[in-house]
Design brief:
The chain is α+β, with helices and mostly antiparallel strands. Helices cover about 40% and strands about 20% of the residues. The chain folds into two domains: about 150 residues, no CATH class; about 250 residues, Aminoglycoside phosphotransferase (APH), C-terminal lobe (Aminoglycoside 3'-phosphotransferase, Chain: A, domain 2, Alpha-Beta Complex), CATH 3.90.1200. It has a seven-stranded antiparallel beta sheet. Strand 14 and strand 15 form a beta hairpin. It starts with a helix and ends in a 7-residue tail after the last helix. The structure holds adenosine-5'-diphosphate and the ligand O=P(O)(O)O[C@H]1O[C@H](CO)[C@@H](O[C@H]2O[C@H](CO)[C@@H](O)[C@H](O)[C@H]2O)[C@H](O)[C@H]1O. The ligand O=P(O)(O)O[C@H]1O[C@H](CO)[C@@H](O[C@H]2O[C@H](CO)[C@@H](O)[C@H](O)[C@H]2O)[C@H](O)[C@H]1O binds next to helix 9 and helix 11. This is Maltokinase. It catalyses: D-maltose + ATP = alpha-maltose 1-phosphate + ADP + H(+).
């Protein structure tokens, strides 16, 4: 049997190679210069050993904590793939209590079934989620943010006002990190029959592409009805967030800060991705135009990284998941009050992604490009209309804030340029060609 502390020593020697290769590692844009353990909790001392480990990963200009769950039971030491070990985490949440500084809690008035085995989900993720039976999903946050994680905070707030478009929060795991009580895990109700919006939307696009002669409203897999309902669901969640946590009205100084933040993100991203350079003047101009807003801009807590992969279609309707915000943005930005139009813009970007991703790496085909644009326009319009129908009067119809919405969409596309550059370079053309289209600055080959 391996002693827990020998296991940690072994893991530490393997991490420089293993960590950067993980999908959830958020620092793929620069080299790792050092990794050191920050805290360890031995959750199981006998075989198979289970150790909760937080390491600090140092890279040029950043130091970030990452969470690991390690065991001697499998060759790569990653315990999240071992059902009997992850089952122990669920049991600890069910019982409640503290083990070596890690606190396991279930939400008030919730009873958790014990003895279930956990299986990790295999989708592309920024974190690691483990599903127990058909009942629960436990998300282990990988890159940790000191303090309460906004995903848990917003789920709790929404649940308290009876929001119908989220999965119920059921429990949490927290630990002390650098003096802060920090969320490391969140347990939620699992929706076994759910399909995510990205899978549904891309199926619809595929149907359309296969029927070269038909229009989006004529093919069987038309998505516009769903897009409309999704718009209503997003507006309802914004209304629920407003009821739970309130709103504020932005003044000229707030808008100035927003414009400057978008411009400075652009400067940062263009430094790393020179392909963005030709669009800089048009992007700056679009950001400046955001100052021209006819109505008062409302700010509130929002989802912050809304896209089709963050919404689940269940038999009861659409659910929004993952309220953590953009994984690549600083926590202060992610928890700030912001315009709900940012979420609208995120979803509009996603319709554009769904329409164009099938063309990536394909030879130029005029007919398919026209079809993709048509699908995107149809579903973006349906989503916006659904949103406008259900939006609280404080937010109103997004179409009335055209300049601001366009600026948010372009800002999101700039974020995506950085995201694709670091994670999926072959997809870089998707946000770049959208920027070219929206700014009218010439086309980029898909
Ligand atoms: N409550 C849920 N019920 C069913 N599936 C879920 C639920 N929550 C998340 N998922 C699945 O897990 C995936 C990742 O969840 P998400 O919260 O987006 O994690 P990450 O922060 O790692 O991106 C989702 O795309 C979805 O397929
Ligand atoms: O879901 P995450 O919180 O991990 O979000 C990150 O990854 C997303 C990709 O999975 C990324 O989304 C981008 O690609 C999507 C298609 O895969 C597309 O629907 C989105 O519109 C686009 O932004 C997201 O930006 C990133 O933060």
């Amino acid at each position: 049997m391996t002693e827990p502390h020998d296991l940690v020593d072994k893991v530490m020697t393997e991490l420089p190679e293993w960590l950067p290769a993980q999908r959830w590692f958020g620092g793929k844009d620069r080299p790792v210069t050092s990794i050191r353990p920050l805290r360890t909790s031995v959750l199981r001392a006998e075989e198979p050993v289970l150790v909760h480990l937080v390491v600090e990963v140092e890279q040029p200009d950043r130091k970030e904590p990452y969470q690991l769950l390690v065991t001697d039971h499998v060759e790569n030491y990653d315990a999240t793939a071992v059902p009997e070990l992850t089952g122990a985490l669920l049991d600890l949440i069910a019982e409640g209590g503290e083990v070596e500084g890690l606190k396991f809690e279930h939400e008030p008035d919730v009873e958790i079934t014990t003895g279930l085995r956990g299986r990790p989900i295999t989708s592309e993720q920024s974190n690691t989620s483990i599903v127990f039976g058909s009942q629960y999903i436990l998300k282990l946050f990988r890159k940790l943010t000191y303090g309460d994680n906004p995903d848990l905070v917003l789920h709790r707030a929404l649940h308290q006002v009876g929001c119908e478009h989220i999965a119920q929060p059921l429990g949490s795991i927290t630990g002390r990190l650098d003096g802060h009580t920090t969320t490391v895990g969140m347990l939620q109700q699992f929706m076994p029959d759910a399909v995510d919006g990205w899978a549904m939307a891309t199926t619809s696009v595929r149907d359309l592409m296969a029927e070269g002669d038909l229009h989006a409203d004529e093919v069987g897999g038309d998505f516009a009805g769903e897009a409309h309902r999704l718009g209503q669901a997003v507006a309802t969640v914004h209304g629920d967030l407003e009821r739970a946590l309130g709103i504020e009205h932005a003044d000229a100084a707030d808008i100035d800060r927003t414009v400057r933040a978008m411009t400075s993100r652009l400067d940062e991203v263009v430094g790393a991705v020179p392909e963005l350079r030709p669009y800089v003047p048009a992007l700056r101009e679009a950001f400046e135009q955001a100052r021209d807003t006819p109505d008062a801009v409302v700010t509130q807590h929002i989802h912050g990284d809304l896209h089709l992969g963050q919404v689940l279609r269940t038999v009861q309707g659409w659910l929004l998941i993952d309220f953590e915000g953009e994984p690549g943005s600083p926590i202060a930005e992610r928890t700030a009050l912001r315009s709900p139009l940012r979420d609208v813009a995120g979803m509009l970007r996603s319709f554009d992604y769904a329409a164009h991703q099938l063309l990536v790496g394909q030879p130029e085909d005029h007919q398919l490009t026209v079809r993709a644009l048509e699908w995107s326009r149809r579903n973006r319009a349906a989503f916006t209309e659904g949103y406008a129908e259900a939006a609280a009067s404080s937010v109103g119809d997004p179409r009335k804030s055209g300049h601001l919405l366009r600026a948010f969409e372009l800002d999101k596309a700039v974020y995506e340029v950085a995201y694709e550059h670091a994670n999926r370079p072959e997809w870089l053309t998707v946000p770049l060609s959208s920027i070219a289209r929206i700014t009218g600055e010439g086309a980029v080959q898909s």
